[in-house]
Design a protein that fits this description.
Layout (H helix, E strand, L loop, with lengths): L1 H21 L1
């Protein structure tokens, strides 16, 4: 469960970085 939580954080951070780079 902890690994899944960390994975969600990594995916969320990656999405934020991608959205910022797209702008």
């Amino acid at each position: 469960m902890l690994s899944d939580f960390q994975h969600d954080i990594e995916v969320g951070s990656n999405n934020c970085v991608n959205s910022v780079m797209l702008r």
